[in-house]
Specification:
single chain; 334 residues; alpha/beta; 6-stranded parallel beta sheet; 15 strands; EC 1.3.1.48; 15-oxoprostaglandin 13-reductase [NAD(P)+] activity
């Protein structure tokens, strides 16, 4: 039997997460039965969705939700032989016994020079979120002007790069001058620090005086309220996230955009990436091709050590990361 380290949700979050919300425990993993495999985590992901989903889908005492890249170290399942690598929703665990449900093998031709951790980032769920939000929700077209906020994060930075590949004009909002510089490196036409501008409205108008065809929304709250009036007639808005609201104890209220949306005939649609799961393999290959062609840069913010999962999670929610926030668990992952 293998002893696994796990991080559990000791108590539900009230406001911003604290160390006391988490508890590190040990659990014994049983020997894999017929059809099962034993996984060893190499990289774990920390993502904004974990904050609201923990309230909706977790009970106190449960292992924190999340995705990891893992290596199969024992196998009684021919679909997952020893030594292969998978992406799985195994939660914050170092080892997991699985019957294969929900496991996805890395692309069979995954290049040796591409870090496997990108299967949690631009060549994984965040990359798919960016691609489907742009293509399936916004219907992005060459020549469109796109606004994206939280633009230096895992999803936002990929959104921007795909938009440039598609021939769009791109405006990004982010929360530090270092992140603004990163966006300019990625080819954003305009980028600004929403914290230091004197007026968000004026910053949006200055960046695109004629307005925006599309808005990829990751933040919510006051930013969204200010951005909606800057949309062009028949503009399209993809609601991907609302990170500004995740840690609030008192829900935000108003202003309400109904009249603006009616008069401008705007379309706003929320989405979850799993809606297009049937397209994932083809989409992942497109993302990988862009990576290998040098069209997709994949910045990572790496925290070393499973014991630092809560710190990495809280740091991500505070915006410490540029690009994808991950935790490296295993020496093999270096």
């Amino acid at each position: 039997m293998v002893q696994s380290k796990t991080w559990v949700l000791a108590r539900h979050f009230e406001g911003f997460p604290e160390d006391s919300n988490f508890e590190l425990k040990l659990e014994q993993q049983p020997e894999p039965k017929d059809g099962e495999v034993l996984l060893e985590a190499l990289f774990l992901s920390v993502d904004p969705y974990m904050r609201p989903f923990s309230r909706l889908r977790m009970k106190e005492g449960g292992v924190m939700i999340g995705t990891q890249v893992a290596k199969v170290i024992q196998s009684n399942n021919s679909a997952f032989p020893i030594g292969c690598h998978v992406v799985g929703r195994c939660g914050w665990r170092t080892h997991t016994v699985s019957d294969g449900t929900g496991l996805t093998r890395l692309l069979s031709d995954w290049p040796q020079e591409v870090p496997m951790s990108l299967a949690l980032g631009a060549i994984g769920m965040p990359g798919l979120t960016a691609l489907y939000g742009l293509e399936e929700v916004l219907g992005l077209q060459a020549g469109d002007t796109l606004l994206v906020n939280a633009a230096a994060g895992a999803v936002g930075s990929t959104v921007g790069q795909i938009a440039k590949i598609k021939g769009c004009r791109l405006v990004g909002s982010t929360g530090s001058d270092a992140k603004v510089a990163f966006l300019k490196e990625l080819g954003f036409d305009e980028a600004f620090n929403y914290i230091t501008v004197s007026s968000l409205e004026e910053a949006l108008k200055s960046a695109s005086p004629d307005g925006y065809h599309c808005f990829f929304e990751n933040v919510g709250g006051p930013f969204c309220s200010v951005a909606i009036p800057q949309m062009k007639e028949f503009g399209r808005i993809a609601l991907c996230g609302g990170i500004s609201t995740y840690n609030e104890t008192i829900p935000q209220t108003g202003p309400y955009p109904h009249l603006t949306m009616i008069f401008k005939q705007l379309k706003m649609e929320g989405f979850l990436v799993g809606r297009w799961e049937h397209k994932n393999q083809e989409a992942l290959r497109r993302l990988m091709a862009w990576k290998r062609e040098g069209k997709l840069q994949c910045r990572e913010h790496v925290t070393q050590g499973f014991e630092n999962m809560p710190a990495a999670f809280m740091g991500m929610l505070q915006g410490e990361n540029i690009g994808k926030a991950i935790v490296r668990v295993s020496i093999e992952a270096i």
